[in-house]
Amino acid sequence: MKLTVDTLDNNVKSAVINIGKNNGYVEVFVSEGIVHLNVFNKYGDVVHEWASPAERLRLSEYTTPKF
Description:
This protein is mainly beta.
């Protein structure tokens, strides 16, 4: 599986990760302090939505991996 990341030219500057050539994609963006994550299937239908205040993520145990 090859992943690519592009920034779209839209008002929220979302980042999109393509999951393979025909397998859909994940979109992530921050709007008004809310982190949004949407998973789309290969037909462009939203199959999962998630949103959380960015401040909650900073206060929680979510951390970036250390390599």
